[in-house]
Amino acid sequence: QVQLVESGGGLVQAGGSLRLSCVVSGSIFRFNAMGWYRQAAGKQRELVADITSGGTSTYADSVKGRFTISRDNGKNTVYLTMNSLKPEDTAVYYCNRPGGASPDNALYAWGQGTLVTVSS
Q1: Edge-to-edge strands of the sheet including 34-39?
Q2: What is the pLDDT of residue 74?
Q3: Contact, 8 vs 115, CB < 8 A?
Q4: DSSP 8-state assignment for residue 106
Q5: Distance between CA atoms of 107 and 98, rounded to whole angstroms?
Q6: pLDDT digits 0-9 by tens, 20-37
Q7: How many CA atoms lie within 13 A of 58 on its CB side?
Q8: How many CA atoms lie within 13 A of 45 on its CB side?
Q9: Would you give the DSSP letter of residue 117?
Q10: Stretch 77-106: mean pLDDT, rounded?
Q11: What is the 3-state secondary structure (H, E, C) of 79-96?
Q12: What is the DSSP secondary-structure string of 11-35?
């Protein structure tokens, strides 16, 4: 069974930076695309960035130019570096393997996520 453990969230002022990490166990990590999702209070979960097994990344328009997704296949870990944070980036952030009927769906059971709070 695949397990996802996210970490690195916290409270940061607008304009600040954070780096999130997600350790993946129980899957052949290096062969799979991975993504970072977020869910703000009262809103649906959305995919904000994903990275293929070969390292090609794509981003939601709302984070393009500010967030960077990366991966370390030797450590079974995917990262999300977030710069120039805005209050609207406040959400619980999750990693998962993209897939399913809609772009915001994912294939594995969700982890506990990590909370990012951006103060103005």
Answers
A1: 10-13, 114-119, 91-96, 34-39, 46-51, 57-59
A2: 94
A3: no
A4: B
A5: 6
A6: 999 999 888 999 999 999
A7: 8
A8: 17
A9: E
A10: 94
A11: EEEECCCCHHHCEEEEEE
A12: EEETT--EEEEEEEESS-GGGS-EE
